[in-house]
Specification:
Chain C: It is found in: Endomembrane system; Membrane. The complex is a heterotrimer. Chain A is an all-alpha fold. Chain A is built from 20 helices and two strands. In chain A, 65% of the residues are buried. Classes of the chains: A mainly alpha, B mainly alpha, C mainly alpha.
């Protein structure tokens, strides 16, 4: 029993998240959406605080099936923070709609799923995490009940179920080879083909959640259909969860059997290039950002490649995850305020100079311009890739940063140099709060890197 | 070495403080904005002058603060004779440019703030003793310049700005790559430039690749043929003040990089491939001069001459990489002085062209006529600056180019011979422009009725004019501190 | 003390130039003060310095290479001559420029010119030497362009600057080679080691440009577009003189072979530009060509190994030529032209000027006891001593030509009728001329001791005296009776136009350079276009990928849709089946009774049915796959 309680203590943050979700649901039943929001915020803060407190300790729970290490703790920190911001954005966007409270509950559930993913040391946790986070995702995406939202949600669902099934199928092989669902059990296997097959299937499942090329097709439509705040959520939480999970897998997976890194590198190169290149042609802000998240997904892989070869691997993932969450939520928040078309944002600098500056900062951070958080992240990612012998991938990433500049300049340039801002939206102070916080985080994290990399 | 007053940080961040004050006082009058801008630029200039006292051969005024201990990246500042030259140049040129810009009413606050931000970034680049810090400032200059071009430029400004941004960003990304490899292969890993200079960490293939990445980055920035395409476009579209900064200081980032990184951190690879760099540089000299000669837009013409002048500079660095002897020291002395000279001369030229454009509303050489008659002081300054630019002795460029040629003559007499021809070409193009646009009778119907230089413009131009002459006559003013550092560089020890 | 004088003689004109540039009032006063101070400085320096004494002053400079100015006897003498000539010309110019435009421009440039020459004279290191040399180029550019609203003034100034600038690169290269050889910035005085022939050739190129030797002589005639005092200054003690001065400075370290080249260049220039002077139709053009020719004499002397003779001729020529030009300027002021036809007979109206002109002309011819006689005699003797017949022939021919062309000029001025001109401020101009003419008349006696004091000697001999005098007298006669039809017309024209071959510099150098420039401009545009093309290619590529992305998505979506459609279709089908099954069921119910045995719990049979139906399913799947393929 002592063991059990210790295990439960280890996953206490996740339990808090679960309780948060439940209580939010209870408030919804009481028709008190505000209560749900407060629950969400308090619960998330709790989980966040706890994880910050725990930073530096490494533990496993349930005989190694769950890990409370740097990655998973940071996942809780980043994702709970993100959930709070998203909650505020949701409040602003969906205030007064029917079943508002369920959204908060679903946010908490999805965050739970992603944090489970980020700490998984066992195949079952992987499956569980993917399922929780994607199932809640369908519900969130379909929330407005409009045609486009439904279409997007259905796409999300279809892709999700197919890739989920594939993943499950592939993982059964791993379990079959090693005789255990524990990831660490595959240590002594000697079946490269089956291992590879399983790995491919795993990539399919996680790649879908992370909208990695070529599992990304749902992304633009779903983002466009869903409320902007939900799109922001989908672009951040499942993605970080999935990549951290992949990192956990890679950390344990024996590297001598198959060169997984090559697969990841190729995927990374494709994803980066593909996302950026396609984003060049988007006229909708939200679609542009959607494709840009595909490109950013590729960058995450650089860190995963380095996870076994470079001491910078984990730090780079955490740093970039943090930066990515801050800058992406910030950018989406501003999109939520001004509108989904590029034409909506032109001339923003004349009406709301600070908002334009903040948007510029988010976008330049996505490009990786110092001293912003995105630079710190990408810088570490490149370092870890070079350190692992993947210099060519770093070069590809670097060239992609240049292309991505062209992409984001398509937003920056009209903001400052066109004068037709007609969008007279009132000041939405929740959004303001979110993007200003993200602004501070984006700049602050770029300078105070040492807080994250210890 | 460590004075109690963090003089470098003060000098570095004063402009930034000014920028913040301007942003905070967003709705204040242009007078307040101008005052704040000028005061912070002046203080920074004074700081830079103060730094000049107490320089010794190594890095002086070193400041170090922990930043990312896990990576051994820190806030490290320091200057030696080479970087001090650039620091001084930046503060002087920004001071003059800011005075020049005080007139423009349009988006004045934003412009001044941007310029001050740029000043901090430029100073940061030259003061950094940490790769990461260097890179950060390096990139900020890019962003700042993008907004200057796109915000206050001429008709085609957006295209020019985007081209500038993307082109140079590609360069700086390769720089990042090179920095990463320097970092990763250093033992123990560090971003401390002093360490990397004292013990260049790379060898073999990695060193070669890193060198070429550095070369690419700085060749785009400098720029050398064939990586120069962004430059004429950016200059034609940028506002005069922006051009002055761009040509006067931002190009020096590339030059400084060649010295500080390519030469000092990958010396062996540089030595091996110096001949290629040399060929590229010599070709740039001739190419820049010839293409400049074919221009009809006077600003474009001056822009192309930058390629020519930077060619001399890079040649000097290549010579220093090649021969570690007195000749190498001469060449490097000259190259460093050339940074300063080119900064003040070309900065002045671009500001003057701005003044001409305001008055004559065109920059076409065939359309301009008799400027010397119409605006004697303005014309006189331009002629002086043009002669400085073509390398007339007694003016700023000559001592620099003299030493570069002298240093290079020992190993590459033919290259120097070709470059001397380049000097003739430069003379020809400036003389042609002077003859066509400045001499003769002014076209009355064409010139807007504006007076010769006003007090504001005089205040901006006269310091530069004086400096051009002073450096020409007393090169040792600057050269002494340069030489003191150059003499003791670790690259000569091999 | 001498240090102070040294600085005064250099800095006074610089100060005057700066004053003029800054205050821009066009007043001549500061410049006259400047030149006077410079003269006083050089005079006291000259008096203060003994033969053996030479003072080196080091200051500032490049790292490890301080600048050096040298105050020795030779330099002080040269500075003195320069400032005397300059003072005379400045005084003259005050009168000359009184009614002319462009004073604000003219005066600072004059002072700058003087300052540059003084720097050059006193320079003890290559850096300062080049500085003086090039600043003089700048000043000459400015001075020739004084009246820049006139096209020929603009073109003349550009030509002068560019030609000399090109040749100056020889000075750079030569200086670099010398600096590297001796590892010092200072100009070496006398050393055991000689510089290479290459270095000497480089220097020679510079000399040819500055001293207007073949084939660079044409810039001098273009320079006539400037005010006449400018020409006087340019052609006497400064600018062209600087070339010869360079040779004096480097003479001790010149290799033997180089002397021959120098001599040959000098000889060719003597003859060809002498002919140009003879065929010239313009007084100033004649004087310009004559300058080249006289400088050729100096080169000849150096080539023959007698720098003393060359030095003497340098001094003599400075006085003579400036006198001649100043005279020409008076005629120009009187008749608005210097073409022989327009000023024919004007000598009778401007008698004083004409007499001084004749005296200077005779001096140039080499008539004793005028100053030119002493130096020219020395040069002829030098050529005889050298034993090179080409030198001798050229020298004698040159003396003959000299006599001829001055004779032609004097005849034009004498013969014919001219109106009485009105010249304001003639007195000032004449004052300038008087200062110089005294030196032309009396200076000759001081030449030899002075040259000796420097350490050179002027050779003397009977034969040379005879040859020189005969050539001079014969030449004077020839010139007096010379008619244009004596020489073939085409040659006259060719010679008069400075032997312009194939369109001259415009066609040979300028146009090809501009063409090359345009070609490179095209390359540049091409590169830019190419880069943009890469950009557009990338954009197009990205669009293709974008379309592919959309298509894949649509395809997947359509597959999904068709699935839904299929499912709805099958739902209907299902219903029907259900109904039919119901009917079947009921019928089965009925028949169930009969079939009890069939449905008997025999598992193996049921399994077989399942497997068979599965096989059928797989079969269908395969078929559909084949169809798909």
């Amino acid at each position: 029993m002592g063991k059990m309680s210790e295990d439960l203590l280890t996953i206490l943050p996740q339990i808090i998240l679960l309780l948060t979700a439940m209580s939010a649901l209870v408030f919804e039943m009481l028709r008190k959406p505000l209560g749900s929001l407060y629950t969400l915020i308090i619960g998330m803060l709790g989980a966040l605080g706890l994880s910050i407190y725990r930073l530096g300790t490494v533990k496993t729970a349930f005989s190694g099936t769950f890990r409370s290490d740097e990655l998973s703790q940071w996942a809780v920190i980043i994702l709970s923070g993100a959930a709070i911001f998203i909650g505020l954005l949701v409040r602003q966007e969906l205030k007064g709609t029917d079943r508002e409270g369920t959204v908060y509950s679903l946010l908490a559930f999805s965050t739970l799923g992603s944090t489970l993913l980020a700490g998984s040391g066992d195949m079952m946790f992987l499956v569980l995490g993917v399922l929780i986070s994607s199932l809640t995702g369908f519900a969130l995406a379909a929330y407005p009940k409009t045609d486009s939202a439904t279409e997007g949600a259905v796409k999300y669902f279809v892709y999700g179920s197919v890739t989920g099934a594939i993943m499950l199928f592939g993982l059964t092989y791993w379990a079959g080879i090693s005789g255990s669902t524990l990831l660490s059990a595959s240590e002594n296997t000697n079946q490269p083909f089956l291992m590879l097959f399983g790995f491919g299937a795993l990539i399919a499942g996680l790649g879908y959640a992370a909208s990695l090329f070529p599992f990304h097709f749902w992304t633009p439509d779903t983002f466009e259909g869903a409320p902007v705040s939900i799109a922001a959520f989908l672009s951040v939480t499942p993605k970080i969860g999935a990549f951290f999970a992949l990192a956990q897998v890679m950390k344990i997976l024996p590297q001598h059997i198959v060169d997984y890194n090559l697969i990841l590198a190729i995927l990374a190169a494709f994803s980066m290039t593909y996302g950026n290149v396609v984003a060049l042609w988007q006229n909708s802000l939200i679609r542009l950002l959607a494709y840009s998240t595909i490109a950013q997904a590729g960058f995450f892989l650089l860190g995963i490649i380095g996870i076994n070869h470079s001491d910078l691997g984990i730090s780079s993932l955490i740093m970039f995850g943090f930066a990515y969450a801050a800058m992406n939520i910030g950018a989406f928040a501003i999109v939520q305020q001004v509108g989904k078309k590029i034409s909506h944002i032109s001339g923003l600098a004349y009406k709301k100079p600070f908002m334009a500056v903040a948007m510029t900062v988010f976008l330049l951070s996505l490009v990786g311009i110092p001293p912003l958080a995105g630079f710190a992240g990408k810088f570490l990612l490149f370092s870890s890739a070079i350190d692992s012998g993947y210099t060519w991938l770093a070069v590809v990433g670097i060239l992609n940063s240049a292309i991505s500049l062209a992409v984001y300049l398509r937003i920056i340039s009209p903001m400052f140099f066109k004068k037709q801002f007609e969008n007279e939206s009132s000041n939405q102070y929740l959004i303001q709060m979110v993007y200003i916080s993200c602004f501070i985080l984006t700049i602050g994290a770029g300078i105070a890197v040492q807080v994250i990399i210890v | 070495m460590n004075t109690s007053l963090p003089l470098l940080s003060l000098t570095l961040f004063l402009p930034l403080v000014g920028a913040f004050i301007i942003l905070l006082l967003r709705h204040s009058t242009s007078k307040v904005v101008n005052t704040v801008a000028i005061v912070s630029a002046t203080l920074s200039l004074l700081g830079a002058i103060g730094i000049g006292f107490g320089l010794d051969s190594g890095f002086s005024h070193v400041e170090e603060l922990q930043w990312i201990p896990a990576l051994d990246a820190a806030y490290r500042l320091g200057v030696d004779g080479i970087s001090y030259t650039a620091v001084l140049l930046s503060t002087i040129l920004f001071f003059c440019t800011i005075i020049y810009s005080t007139k423009k009413k349009e988006k004045l606050g934003a412009k001044m703030a941007l310029f001050l931000l740029l000043e901090t970034a430029c100073l940061g680049v030259f003061m950094s003793l940490d790769l990461l810090l260097f890179y950060i400032f390096f990139e900020i200059t890019l962003v700042g310049m993008y907004f200057v071009i796109a915000g206050w430029g001429h008709e085609n400004r957006k295209k020019a700005a985007i081209m500038f941004f993307i082109y140079t960003l590609i360069g700086s990304l390769f720089l990042l790559l090179a920095f990463l490899s320097l970092y990763i292969f250093s033992e123990p890993r560090t971003f401390d430039m002093r360490e990397l200079i004292a013990n260049p960490p790379l060898s073999g293939m990695v060193a070669t690749l890193t060198f070429w990445a550095l070369f690419l980055a700085f060749a785009i920035k400098t720029p050398l043929f064939p990586f120069h395409s962004w430059l004429p476009l950016a200059h034609t579209e940028a506002p005069a003040s922006g051009s002055a900064i761009l040509a006067g200081i931002l190009l020096k980032l590339g030059a400084y990089g060649f010295i500080r990184f390519a030469l000092q951190m990958t010396p062996d690879a540089f030595k091996e491939y110096a001949w290629i760099v040399m060929i590229v540089a010599v070709f740039s000299v001739v190419y820049g001069a010839l293409v400049a000669m074919a221009q009809t837009d006077i600003k474009r013409m001056v822009a192309y001459t930058s390629i020519n002048h930077m060619g001399y500079l890079v040649f000097g660095v290549a010579v220093a990489a090649m021969i570690p002897s007195t000749s190498g020291i001469h060449a490097l002395d000259g190259a460093t002085l050339q940074m300063f000279s080119h900064g003040i001369v070309t900065g002045l030229l671009f500001l003057l062209i701005g003044a001409i454009q305001e008055r004559a509303t065109t920059r076409e050489i065939p359309a301009l006529r008799g400027l010397l008659k119409a605006y004697p002081i303005l014309g006189g300054f331009f002629v002086l600056a043009a002669f400085a630019s073509l390398g007339l002795p007694g003016l700023a460029h000559f001592p620099a180019e003299f030493q570069i040629f002298l240093g290079g003559f020992e190993i590459y007499p033919w290259a120097v011979a070709i470059m001397l021809l380049g000097l003739v070409l430069t003379s020809a193009l400036y003389i042609r422009a002077i003859q066509r646009s400045f001499m003769g009778t002014p076209d009355k119907s064409f010139l807007v009725k504006l007076k010769d230089l006003d007090a504001r413009e005089l205040c901006a131009f006269i310091p530069l004019v004086i400096l051009i002459i002073a450096i020409g006559v007393f090169p040792n003013l600057i050269l002494d501190s340069i030489h003191q550092s150059v003499k003791y560089l670790s690259i000569w020890e091999k | 003390m001498s240090e102070l004088f040294l600085w005064i003689l250099i800095l006074a004109p610089i100060g005057a130039a700066l004053f003029g540039y800054i205050f821009r009032n066009g007043s001549s006063l500061p410049h006259l003060i400047g030149v006077s101070a410079s003269l006083l400085g050089s005079l006291f320096l000259f008096l203060n310095i003994s033969q053996s004494f030479s003072q080196k002053i080091e200051f500032g400079g490049l790292a490890d290479f301080p600048f050096v100015v040298v105050a020795n006897y030779q330099n002080a003498l040269l500075a003195l001559v320069v400032s005397v000539v300059a003072l005379a010309i400045f005084i003259y110019a005050k009168g000359y420029m009184e009614a002319e435009k462009g004073k604000r421009w003219f005066w600072p440039a004059m002072s700058l010119f003087l300052a540059a020459m003084q720097v050059l004279v006193m320079a003890g290191d290559w850096f300062l030497f080049i500085t003086g040399w090039e600043l003089m180029g700048l000043a000459s550019f400015l001075l020739i362009g004084t009246w820049h609203e006139k096209k020929n003034a603009r073109l003349g100034s550009v030509k002068a600057f560019m030609l000399t600038r090109f040749a100056d690169m020889g000075l750079y290269a030569g200086a670099f080679l010398t600096i590297i050889t001796y590892n010092q910035l200072a100009v070496p005085f006398s050393v055991t080691q000689e510089i290479s022939v290459l270095a000497a050739s480089c220097f020679l190129l510079a000399v040819m440009g500055k001293s207007a030797q073949l084939p660079f002589q044409s810039w001098l005639s273009g320079a006539m577009a400037g005010p006449t005092p400018v020409s006087a200054l340019l052609h006497s003690a400064t600018m062209v003189g600087a070339g010869a001065l360079l040779l004096f400075k480097i003479y001790p370290i010149l290799p033997e072979e180089a002397l021959l080249y120098i001599g040959i260049i000098g000889c060719l220039t003597i003859i060809l530009t002498g002919l140009t002077a003879i065929t010239s139709k313009d007084l100033k053009q004649m004087l310009a060509a004559s300058t080249s020719s006289q400088l050729g004499f100096m080169l000849l002397a150096i080539g023959a190994g007698f720098p003393g003779a060359a030095f003497a001729h340098w001094l003599a020529h400075a006085f003579m030529k400036s006198t001649l030009f100043l005279g020409a300027g008076v005629f120009q002021q009187g008749y608005e032209s210097t073409q022989y036809k327009k000023i024919a007979g004007s000598g009778k109206q401007l008698k004083v000027t004409h007499y001084t002109f004749i005296i200077a002309a005779l001096a140039l011819t080499g008539i004793p006891p005028l100053i030119g006689y002493w130096s020219k005699d020395g040069i002829l003797e030098a050529s005889l001593i050298s034993g090179n017949w080409f030198f001798v022939v050229s020298g004698v021919l040159g003396a003959f030509f000299t006599a001829s062309y001055v004779s032609i000029a004097v005849r034009w001025l004498w013969k014919g009728k001219a109106e009485k001109p009105s010249i304001s401020k003639k007195n000032l101009m004449l004052t300038g001329i008087f200062i110089l003419i005294i030196l032309v008349i009396a200076g000759g006696f001081g030449l030899e001791p002075i040259v000796k004091k420097i350490g050179y000697s002027i050779p003397k001999g009977k034969w040379s005296m005879v040859l020189g005098l005969v050539a001079a007298l014969f030449g004077l006669l020839t010139g007096w009776f010379y008619r244009e039809n004596w020489l073939p017309g085409t040659f006259t024209k060719f010679s008069r136009e400075n032997y312009t071959l194939a369109g001259g510099y415009q066609n040979l150098v300028v146009n090809p350079t501009l063409k090359t420039a345009n070609f490179f401009q095209h390359i540049d545009a091409f590169i830019l276009e190419y880069i943009e093309k890469i950009g557009y290619f990338g954009l197009n590529l990205s669009q293709t990928i974008f379309k592919a992305d959309r298509n894949v998505k649509t395809a997947v979506w359509e597959i999904g849709n068709s699935g839904i459609w299929l499912s709805s279709f099958s739902q209907i089908f299902d219903l029907k089946i259900l109904i039919s099954i119901k009917t079947i069921a009921s019928s089965i119910k009925e028949s169930g009774y009969y079939g009890k045995k069939w449905q008997s719990g025999l598992v193996h049979k049921e399994l077989a049915i399942t497997i068979i139906s599965l096989l059928i399913l797989i079969f269908i799947l395969i078929i559909s796959l084949i169809e798909l393929l």
